[in-house]
Amino acid sequence: MTGEEPATGGDVRIAGHSVSAEETRAVEALGFCPQASALWHAVTPREHLELYAVLGGRQPRAAAAAAGRLLKSLDFEDHGDKYSQKLSGGTRRKLSVAIALISRPRVCVLDEPSAGMDPASRRALWEVLQRELRGNRCAAVVTTHAMEEAETLCDCIGILVRGRLRALGSPARLRSRYGREYGIEINLIEPGVGEGGRECGRGSRGDDVVEFISRRFPSARLRERLGGRLSFSLDIAQQGSGMGGQSGGVRPHIGQPALLVSAESAAEPSPLTGEATLENSTDGGNGAPPPGRGDREGTGAWGRSRRCGLILLAEVFESLEGARKALGIADYAVSLPSLEQVFLHFARVQESGE
């Protein structure tokens, strides 16, 4: 796309210009942030930005103003007049991204833009990138190994395995199609007196919860146990339970009525965290469908989910809510499959050579 390597076949058009036939015009519309540093050691960030702004067609005074604005937006204005060789790795990445944006390109290619940055700087960089790309009506092509970065910056994500495109779609679509596990987080109430007047500590309650989850969902695995907090992974594809749900290879489509069938108070999953949290049930914990949802085998959401294999997530809610009081559960959350899980799945595919 940048014209650095000759194409072995096909063509790429940037802003309507062919990289092969009109390389100069195509590259003029392109902003590029390489993974390896391409900075001059004895030139300051301000000088870098002003130079690239002038090369991109700005007048010197406008170039200076644009350079100052980006230095401030990316929070390295204090380093604007230092030689680039004296900058930290994270600050050099900020400068490389700023150079890609300074000429107001139509298309921006960003290769690992936040590599080497601390979490706070990474978040700040993403916010600036989103603002600048929208403001300039600029498309971006981002290569990254960080799924959080991909989900934050990209509307469409492609996953490459051994140089071939193996998956393409929105973050929600990829989670739905390739997600393997639900996450279950359970917090127990403070130690005290349980049913029948017997003392009940978090340890015994935790053992009861592990036994209950393992019995009800055989594919569940305990990921972490810390005090009164337990974390489980639940395999979607192989999940089965003693509640009559379908098992063996049924993969629910995330976003269908299974997310809503447990209780009126079940929250929609957050677009950032992917978590849907159920605080209180309207069914009284007896496993009955909430009012207005229809019976489990009827025409309501419960019936549709059962027939389509989408009852799996509802079973998790129903099971936990039904046993909540007996097990001493204070609250719990069920998270949808993450993009990180999807990426790790394809990484294992690459290692196995499938």
Automatic annotation (TrEMBL):
Region (Disordered): 265-301
Annotated GO MF terms: ABC-type transporter activity; ATP binding; ATP hydrolysis activity; lipid transporter activity
InterPro entries listed in its UniProt record: ABC_transporter-like_ATP-bd (IPR003439), ABCA (IPR026082), P-loop_NTPase (IPR027417)
CC terms in the record's Gene Ontology section: membrane
Domain ABC transporter: 1-114
Pfam annotation, one family: ABC_tran
Keywords for this protein: Repeat, Transport
Name of this chain's protein: ABC transporter domain-containing protein
Organism: Chromera velia CCMP2878
